[in-house]
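The passage that follows is intended for readers who have already worked through the single-chain material. We present the inputs for a multi-component assembly, then the predicted structure in tokenized form, and finally a short commentary. You are encouraged to pause after the input and sketch how you expect the pieces to fit together before reading on.
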Amino acid sequence: MKRYKCTISYDGAQFFGYQIQPNKRTVQEEIEKALANLHKGLHIRVTASGRTDTKVHAKGQVIHFDSPLSIPIHKWPVALNSILPEDITVVDIKNTDAQFHARFDAVSKEYRYFIYLNKVRDPFKRFYTYHFPYGVDLQEMEEASKLMLGTHDFTSFCSAKTETEDKVRTMKEITLSKENDMLVIRFVGNGFLYNMVRILVGTLLEVGTGRREASSIPAIFERRDRSAAGKTAAPQGLYLWKVDYE
Amino acid sequence: MKRYKCTISYDGAQFFGYQIQPNKRTVQEEIEKALANLHKGLHIRVTASGRTDTKVHAKGQVIHFDSPLSIPIHKWPVALNSILPEDITVVDIKNTDAQFHARFDAVSKEYRYFIYLNKVRDPFKRFYTYHFPYGVDLQEMEEASKLMLGTHDFTSFCSAKTETEDKVRTMKEITLSKENDMLVIRFVGNGFLYNMVRILVGTLLEVGTGRREASSIPAIFERRDRSAAGKTAAPQGLYLWKVDYE
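Having made your guess, compare it with the prediction:
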């Protein structure tokens, strides 16, 4: 058995998220089906760096799996891509040591959230951005984003359904960049809770439209209550961009 | 009754082309349904600059229609977009004189064809570009494209099923531009026949991969036979970009 570290990209529009569920099309199931096909029916379990929700995309999701096959390493992507559906692509596969774990070994993750600001919607962007035509004050949003940096208890900024006990995470970077009508918010942190990026974005948009003050962010953290923060922004604007390991 | 000139954009992925057909989802049907809704059931017929095929996109298709309603002109796009499905957007509506005709008055059209050259497919581009990972010689393609300019009988470069008698058209511009792995071929002409851009692109790609000489183009025109030209390139790379009127 050899262990492989595999980077995949997927268009989340037609998936009920990453994780396998009965009777729903998921990324994990499609990958395990493709691997079973390659292994003549043998079930190969894959482990990802984390889940992504329905309609959420990935540019650089990382998974690991073990295989008894002796396919030369450079042939793995071609072999898998020829079986996988077109909305999942294997970008890279590397040999890794038998202890490597896609989830536990991740030291940092990057998410990007795409917001389309034009007054008129664009049919080509409907599955790939969040259309927000209401006008935003970027300076206010940037000020608020700075108050989200550092180590905090993110209880207010994750779904009330979050099962993880420890909700302390460190946000290393948040950058806002706007090109024409596309605003991209980039989040880099050591870990992210359920719906965390989407709630941070929803809150930033409420600051951007003047419904909250940038200076109100510390008080939201202190409340440790989901209802203190803004709405959960739409899933189709979110991309798991990159997972970093040591 | 007032006549309106309306510019629309649509993602062709989920349409069986522009023109109404029984039991198939088409752009024209969705627009006429939206107009009927706005007119309390009154059927308003729309006329486009021309058809587009299944999976082909439009950034600037132009249609005209007549309406008895007296909606202020700036409210028309909002009114229609709130009814239309998300894969069609009204970009602009203007009042026009009662003689304006979206098809007969068009003096020039621009199409763009998007070719994704990266070796590895991209799940986000599968409905919006043609993936062509085989390597192309751009200089050869450019040379061939120059021989397609001017006034020609395009019989070899249109579907054998084309019903139009007169197959003489004038190609005003063809430009190739490559940014990273995306090659865009832009065609501007006074009129285009059925499948014409896709057959021109298919032929250019055969030149680009060395299966034809650039210098063979004039002989293809002379043959006046569809089988003399290259394959019809895939529909999802094609966009009706712009229609010009006097």
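Commentary: The first strand of chain A starts at residue 2 and ends at 10. The longest helix of chain A spans residues 196-208. How closely did your sketch match?
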